[in-house]
Structure formats: C-alpha cells, structure tokens
C-alpha cells in the first residue's frame, strides 16, 4: 500500500509541475511584480509594472490593495492587479508566535496566488520585506521556469535590527537568508552605488537602477497650483488652505483680470513625505520647527508644514503634536493622505521639501526626494553615508546634521520670502536646469532592458 501511495504522490507532483510549466496560450510575455506590502505605497514597483507593460509584457501586480493606485496603473490594460488576502491579527498570543503565523499565512497565500496565475517569464520581487517574499518568489521562479529579479530597496535584516538589535538571532538569521537567496537570483537591482558595493562584498552582483521621476511628476503651472490648493480645502477639508471664497486659497487667487496671483503675505509651504517608520527621525523636524523664528529675525514667513504618508508611528506623533501645539507659534501642521494623482500636484506647490530618512542600512536613497526634485522643489535632507549620491550640497538642496542645523537652514532659505530669498531661488534654478535629463523610463531601459535581452 505504501509504495502505491508514494507512486500516486510522485505522479501528482509531476502533473502539477507539468501544469505550472505549461507555456501560456497567449504569445505575450508575462511578468510578475511582487510587493509583500501595500501596492499604493510602493511607487518603484508600480513603475516597474508600467515599464514592463510598455515592453509588451502581460503584467501581474501582486500585493495588498490597501491604498488607491494611480490611474496610470488602473487604466493600463496590460496590468492586472492581483490582491493578496491580508493577515488577520491574532490576539492573546506571544509576539513570536504571531510573527510565525503571519509568515506562514503570507507564504501560503502568496504561493497559492502565484500558482493560479499564467506562467511567468520574469518575476520581479521587492526586498524588503524579505521573509517570505524572496523565498516564495525563488520557488515559483525555479518551478515555473522564470527569471528572478530581486530589487533591493534596503536590507530587511537592518530594519529588524532597529527593533531587536544587530546581534539578535532573528536579525542574524535574516541576514544570512537575504544574502543566500540574493546569490540565487538571476538579476539583482539596487538603488545606489554604495548599496551595490556592499552587496558585492556578499557575493551578489547588483546593477544600480536609480529612482527617477515618472511623467506624473513635473513642474506645475500656476493654474495647476491654484487648482490643487483650492482642492485641499474644498475636497480634503484642510482649513490651513482656506481662502476668502471657494474660488481662491490662502496662497493664490485670480485677480479681476483673471490672472493667477500669489498672495504677497502667504505662508511658506514645507512638505515632508514619510512612511512613518523607524528609519525616519521625525523629532528632527518637529524640534527644528519649535525653534523656527525664535531668534526674532525679520522677514521670516510663517510656515504651513504638510507631512504626508501612512505608517505605524503616525498616530503617536500626531497625538504628541496636538498636545504641544502652543510650542509652534510660527507653524501650522496638516497630515494628509491624498489620492494618488493629487499627491504630485500638492508636492509641486511646496517651497521646500524635507527628507528625514536615515537609512537603517546606510545604503538606500529616499524616493520621496526624487519626487520633490521632479516637481522643482529643493530639499533639506538629513545626513547619512550615501545621501550625497542624490542631494548635491548647495546645488539642488542642503544637508543637515541635527534639529538646530535644520532650523538654521530653513531660516536662511526662507529669509525674505516670498520675493527676496536668493538662496532658495538659486537652488530652484539649479534644480530645474537638470530636470530634462531625469527620467525613469530612460533609466530602466538603460539598466534593466539589456539584462533581460529585450
């Protein structure tokens, strides 16, 4: 009886493998783009999906459908969104047990989903999160005869180390897991030259695919700024933008000749886009803004500070800020989560962008800065090892060390705002002059297209 059961098992496995490796009826190539996270908060992977579709791949975009996606994704007939079922939190169990159940759930749901879809030619998976996404993608790539691309945004183990410490056994295990699976991938991509050099130390050859802006992000016309600033009150109900009528905002309005006119006494708009995670130092921004204007410098504007994004630490910081509002005499805050198509428009209205990203590994670069540059907004970025690959000091932005330094930089840039702030205007001029050379599609075609022999 046992030999018979073993034979049946082997036959079933062979038939299953044959089915999974069966060529597609369609002659169109198929690409899986996998994010074990919120697709709406994974712009780089969405950009991969769009680029694969331009090269006539039938794209399966796989992840959690939590946030609204851009119309460039939803209206693309070559891209199918394949949502995963989220893990339901289990109460009353130790954290380690919950984490183990979550990994098993993610592995099972992702594996089943990938087996249900047509046979892929290419699988592109985001790392992190690395467990179990890399392992699951590798299994499917080997079983179904696809090429595996690992796109390294950061190290998963370094993010775990923020919580558990670098010497914790889970962190050490995750580190070995990531480097071993990375060596088995067909293609490795990463976001900075410093990252590629570090991967090479661990026997992983990676090509640098820098984040570049898509066509969604561009320097706005005054009319576009006028429309989105009005919308921030009429649709999103943020009173910081309210004007004298529904046809105007606090910052810009139409005069009697129907010309778009900026208010001469308008506040400066400062934007920080964040994922509200442990590798971003929010205290730096809030401490700097407490100090802003305290030296009683003349010709400093008030500030409307917009902090966009979702993430695990958002609620506690917003609550803390509400309790301390009196400590910010020259600053107003709002914390919007915008439609995917409105976010780049609001970003383009900013006078200064702030990047609080301090990479857990020291090797990744914040895509939010790329977005800010694309709409012509200079950036103040907190210093870490490879940020200089993106932010060129006093050319397209400034780099600061701590809250005092950020406060001084903001006061220096905004002194004389809006009509007489030469330092800020110089950064904007330098930035806009470089924009024609920045393009995601060109970068993708120059780096990944040759690796795929397209």
UniProtKB/TrEMBL annotation:
Protein's name in the database: Chitobiosyldiphosphodolichol beta-mannosyltransferase
Pfam families linked: Glyco_trans_1_4
InterPro entries with a match to the protein in the record: ALG1-like
UniProt signal peptide: 1-25
Species assigned in the record: Adineta ricciae
GO cellular component, one term: endoplasmic reticulum membrane
Compartments where located: Endoplasmic reticulum membrane
Keyword terms of this UniProt record: Endoplasmic reticulum, Glycosyltransferase, Membrane, Signal, Transferase, Transmembrane, Transmembrane helix
Pathway participation: Protein modification; protein glycosylation
Bilayer topology: Single-pass membrane protein
GO molecular function annotation: mannosyltransferase activity
Gene3D superfamilies named in the record: Glycogen Phosphorylase B
Principal subcellular localization: endoplasmic reticulum
SUPFAM superfamilies the UniProt entry points to: UDP-Glycosyltransferase/glycogen phosphorylase (SSF53756)
Record bears the keyword Cell membrane: no
């Amino acid at each position: 009886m046992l030999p018979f059961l073993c034979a049946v098992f082997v036959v079933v496995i062979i038939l299953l493998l044959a089915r999974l490796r069966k060529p597609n009826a369609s002659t169109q190539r198929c690409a899986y783009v996998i994010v074990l996270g919120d697709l709406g908060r994974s712009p780089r992977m969405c950009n991969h999906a769009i680029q694969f579709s331009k090269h006539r791949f039938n794209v399966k975009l796989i992840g959690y459908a939590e946030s609204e996606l851009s119309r460039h994704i939803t209206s693309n007939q070559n891209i199918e969104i394949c949502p995963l079922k989220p893990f339901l939190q289990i109460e009353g169990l130790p954290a380690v047990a919950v984490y183990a159940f979550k990994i098993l759930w993610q592995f099972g749901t992702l594996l089943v989903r990938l087996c249900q879809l047509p046979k892929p030619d290419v699988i592109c998976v985001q790392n992190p999160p690395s467990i179990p996404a890399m392992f699951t993608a590798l299994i499917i790539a080997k079983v179904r005869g696809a090429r595996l691309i690992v796109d390294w945004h950061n190290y998963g183990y370094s993010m775990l180390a923020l919580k558990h410490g670098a010497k914790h056994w889970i962190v050490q295990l995750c580190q070995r897991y990531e480097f071993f699976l990375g060596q088995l991938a067909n293609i490795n991509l990463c976001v900075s030259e410093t990252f590629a050099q570090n991967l090479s130390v661990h026997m992983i050859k990676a090509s640098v695919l820098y984040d570049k802006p898509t066509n969604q992000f561009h320097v706005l016309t005054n009319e576009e700024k006028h429309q989105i600033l009005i919308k921030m009150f009429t649709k999103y109900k943020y009173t910081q933008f309210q004007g004298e009528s529904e046809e105007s905002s606090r910052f810009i309005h139409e005069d009697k000749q129907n010309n778009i006119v900026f208010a001469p006494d308008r506040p400066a708009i400062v934007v920080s886009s964040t994922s509200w995670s442990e590798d971003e130092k929010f205290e730096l921004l809030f401490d700097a803004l407490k100090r802003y204007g305290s030296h009683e410098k003349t010709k400093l504007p008030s500030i409307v500070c917009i902090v966009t994004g979702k993430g695990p630490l958002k609620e506690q910081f917003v609550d803390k800020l509400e309790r301390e509002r009196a400590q910010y005499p020259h600053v107003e805050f709002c914390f919007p989560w915008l439609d995917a198509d409105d976010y780049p428009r609001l970003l383009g209205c900013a006078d200064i962008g702030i990047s609080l990203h301090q990479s857990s590994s020291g090797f990744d670069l914040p895509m939010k800065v790329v977005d800010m540059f694309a709409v012509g907004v200079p950036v103040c970025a907190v210093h870490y090892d490879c940020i200089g690959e993106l932010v060129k000091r006093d050319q397209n932005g400034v780099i600061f060390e701590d809250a005092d330094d950020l406060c001084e930089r903001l006061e220096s840039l905004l002194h004389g705002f809006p009509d007489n702030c030469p330092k800020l205007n110089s950064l904007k001029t330098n930035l806009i002059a470089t924009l024609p050379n920045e393009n995601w599609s060109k970068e993708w075609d120059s780096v990944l297209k040759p690796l795929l022999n397209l």
